[in-house]
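Entry:
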Amino acid sequence: MKKILEGIGGLLLVAGVAGVIRELTGGWFHFMGLTRFLTENVGFLEGRELFANIVVAVFGLVLVIGAGRIAQD
């Protein structure tokens, strides 16, 4: 379970950071389309793409840190 949470958290962290870079560079950084799909298809996130990507990155970081605190049996 620890490795699964670390993997998911790592993917979310990378996706969030890539989305932040994409938003700050005007959209020419097309590394990961996950955040573009998320921010363009969810209505209440329109105009808040940078904030949404920051939240995704922070959530990924929290998952990685939280998984690191789980005791391995």
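Residues 2-68 form one domain.
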